Amino acid sequence: MGEQASDYHRGEMEIQEQVATYNLFMGLTKWGSLALVSVLLLFIVWFCTPGGFMAGLISAVVTAVLGVLLLREKPGQAH
Q: Which residues contact 1 (CB under 8 A, 6 or more apart)?
C-alpha cells in the first residue's frame, strides 16, 4: 500500500476532459439561467400586471438581449 501513495505525482494528470465538462456545465448554467429569467419575466408581466402580453414580450426580449451582451465570452478572456 505504501507504493500506491508514491505513484501519485501532483500536476501530472491530463485534465482536458474535466475542464471541458466544467466549461460545458458553466455555459449551460449561465445561458439556462438567462432563458429562465426571460421566460419568467414574460409570464410575470403578462399575467400579474396590467401591461399585458406585449409589455411582457418587450421586457423579456430586452432582458434576453442585454443578458447575451453582458454574458457572452469576451475576447482575450480565455485562460
A: none
Structural domain boundaries, residue 51: 36-72
C-alpha to C-alpha distance for 16 and 6, rounded to whole angstroms = 24
Is residue 12 included in any domain, yes or no? no
- Contacts of 17-21 with C-beta under 8 Å, sequence gap 24+, read none
Q: What pTM was computed for the model?
A: 0.76
pLDDT of 11 > 90? The answer is no
Which grid cell sits at 52? 399585458
Counted domains in the chain:
1
